[in-house]
Amino acid sequence: MNQSFHFTNFLKSLFTIAVVAGMATTTNAQLRVSEPLAQPGYYQMKLGDFEIIALSDGTVPQELNKLLQISSQKLTKALSFNYQTDPVEASVNAYLIKADHKLILVDAGTAELYGPSLGHLSESLKRAGYSPDQIDAVLITHIHTDHTGGLMEGKQMVFPNATIYVSKAEADFWLSPENYKQAAAGMKKYFVEATTKVGPYMNAGKVKTYTYGSELFPGITPIASPGHTPGHSFYAVESKGQKIVFWGDIMHSAAVQFPDPSITIIYDVDPKAAAASRKKAFSEAAKDGYWVAGDHLSFPGIGHVRNEKDGIGYRWIPINYSTYSKR
C-alpha cells in the first residue's frame, strides 16, 4: 500500500479525531457534575518470571453511534445484550512489565490532552509503588496522543531515563516534516502534538525505531498489526511458557467487536486492514489460549478470548480477580 494512500486516509482519520476530541470535551464537562470515584488504578499479575501491572489513565465516555461503522439498530442490540447504553465509558490503559531487572511501560496515556477524567497514569504508577524516573523503556503501540500524550508534562519529560521504542513506519509518518507540510491547516495540530510529545525524546537520542522480526528485550517481541495506523504494533511477552500480547488499539468496544470483528471505527486509517488485523488477533488468541491486554478494554483490560459457536464471533473472558500471589 503506497504512502499517498496512507496520507490521504490519515487526513480523513485526523478530521474525525478533531470532531471526537470536541465531543470528549463536552462529555467531560458533563462528567464533572458527578463525584469522581477513587479507584486504585493498578492491577498486578504474574507471567512466568515477569510481573505485569495494568495501569489506569482513567476513563472517557464514547458516543459509539458516531464512532463505530455499524447501524444504530445493531449497536443498540449489542450494547443492550451487555447491559450498556450509549455513550459507553471507555478505559484508557497502559501496562508495566517487570522483566529482568527492567521496568518497561507499554504506552503512556493522555496527560492533559483529553480532559480531567483522563491523565492519571503517573498517579496510578506511583500508587503501584514506582516513579516515572524508574522507567527504563516505553514501548509505543502507535502515535495517537491517547497513547503518547503522557510522555511529556509541559516541556518536561515524564520518563527522563527511558528509551522510547516505536515502529519505523509509525515514526516515519507522524514525525515527517513533509507530511506536516502536506496536511490541511486544521490537521496540522495533530502532527504538532506528535512532535511535541515524542520529539523531545528524539532530540535527546532516546527514541529507537524498529522493523519486525527480532526481540527488543529478552522475551519481548513487536508484531506488525497495521490498519488502525500504518505502523501500529502489538507486543508479545513470554516467560516460562506463559504469554501475553499487548493489543494497543486493535479494538475499542468489547460488546460490539468481539461478536463481529469486521466492525471498524472512524479512527482507522485503513479499515479493511484494521479488520483483518483484528480477526487474525482474535483467531490466534482463541486458538492458542494466551493472555491479551487491550488499551481500551474495561480496566484492567486483561483476559482471554474464546470462539463463539456461530463460528464468526468471539467471547471476551476477563481475568479472574486475585489477591493471591502464585510465586
TrEMBL record:
CDD domains referenced in this protein's UniProt entry, alphabetically: OPHC2-like_MBL-fold
Any one GO molecular function term: hydrolase activity
Superkingdom field: Bacteria
SMART domains the UniProt entry points to: Lactamase_B
Record keywords, A-Z: Hydrolase, Metal-binding, Zinc
Domain Metallo-beta-lactamase, chain residue ranges per copy: 91-296
Family matches, as InterPro entries: MBL_superfamily_lactonases, Metallo-B-lactamas, RibonucZ/Hydroxyglut_hydro
Pfam family, one: Lactamase_B
Gene3D superfamilies, per database record: Ribonuclease Z/Hydroxyacylglutathione hydrolase-like
Similarity remark: Belongs to the metallo-beta-lactamase superfamily.
Protein's name in the database: Glyoxylase-like metal-dependent hydrolase (Beta-lactamase superfamily II)
Species the sequence originates in: Pedobacter cryoconitis
